[in-house]
Design a protein that fits this description.
The protein is of the alpha/beta class and about 260 residues long. The protein folds into two domains: about 45 residues, no CATH class; about 170 residues, 3-Layer(aba) Sandwich (Rossmann fold), CATH 3.40.50.970. Helix content is about 35%, strand content about 15%. The chain is built from ten helices and eight strands. It has a six-stranded parallel sheet with strand order 4-3-5-6-8-7, with helices on both faces. The longest helix is centred in the first third of the chain and has 13 residues. The two termini are about 30 Å apart. The mean pLDDT is about 90. Bound molecules: thiamine diphosphate and magnesium ion.
């Protein structure tokens, strides 16, 4: 359970819930947060046992509560009423999608995707799950394109894309229809955020001693189309152009119109 990615204060995590933790590793039980019931079990066996008895739970009230939250809190506008720029970018990327598979890397951009990529019925969104493996978006997009025969959209950070950047070669060689969007904040944002919150803003290895190469030139060197979106004012036109331009099915789109140093 990656509670630290959800909550700043562990004491207030799901404070009104009765928390049950199921884990195959005994040492994990209660190791991050205090739970009400610890069950040491393989989750597969636990779920099988759980389905033996038919459980009917009325979730209407809870679903209505969630609906009210959704109406009250927008994922693209902060509580200070200002626009959350990265979330706006993600929602714009999503607005052009139909039934594509979307693959996502690991980091802050992954959270923005989870918050603002509103999916439609036939879409699939692939995350690396509990592994949290940076570098996941590009190779999983390749797998998804080959398996689904559909266009795939990969959303990665500037750090994650560099982990498996050599895989751009296969896009060209196999002519795979993959659009890559790099949400380029010029730093290892997720770790930077922790340094800001917990380590006196000591940005070693994330902002300091870290740099991003010219990703558009790299993609072009692999024989792919590539473009920078530096200005948010043009983003709708640029996205329309990359999604609908007939000349190239594959492209790397480096979006770097905002970043936090
Ligand atoms: C292979 C690997 N190394 C390190 C990490 C730890 N880690 C998690 S998020 C992150 C930063 C990701 O940076 P970037 O790809 O630029 O995404 P951002 O957070 O800026 O959106 C790091 C280093 C990891 N999850 N996987
Ligand atoms: Mg980054």
């Amino acid at each position: 359970m990656i509670v630290d990615k959800l909550e700043q204060s562990l004491e207030s995590f799901a404070r009104e819930a009765f928390i049950i933790q199921v884990d195959i590793d005994k040492n994990e039980l209660g190791s991050k947060i205090k739970v009400d019931l610890e069950i040491h079990s393989d989750v597969k066996e636990f779920l099988l046992d759980l389905t033996v008895e038919k459980l009917t739970i009325d979730t209407t009230e809870w679903l209505n509560t969630l609906k009210r939250y959704k109406e009250k809190f927008s994922s693209t506008i902060g509580i200070d009423r200002n626009k959350k720029v990265p979330n706006v970018i993600v929602s714009k990327i999503a607005s052009f999608l139909s039934d594509e598979v979307v693959t996502v890397d690991v980091g802050q951009h992954q959270m923005w995707v989870a918050q603002s990529l509103h999916t439609t019925q036939n879409q699939r969104v692939l995350f690396s799950g509990g592994m949290g493996a940076m570098g996941f978006a590009l190779p999983s997009a390749i797998g998804a394109a080959i398996a689904s025969d559909k266009r795939v959209v990969a959303i990665a950070g500037d750090g994650g894309i560099q982990m498996n950047i050599q895989e751009l070669e296969i896009l060209k060689r196999r002519q795979l229809p993959i659009k890559i969007f790099v949400l380029n904040n010029q730093n290892l944002g997720m770790v930077r955020q922790f340094q800001e919150l917990y380590f006196d803003e000591k940005y070693s290895g994330t902002v300091n001693d870290y740099s991003v190469p010219d990703l558009v030139s790299i993609a072009k060197a692999y024989g792919l189309n590539a473009r920078n979106i530096n200005n948010l004012e043009n983003i709708d036109e640029e996205l329309k152009d990359t999604y609908f331009s007939a000349n190239e099915a594959r492209e790397l789109v480096n979006i770097c119109s905002w970043h936090k140093k």
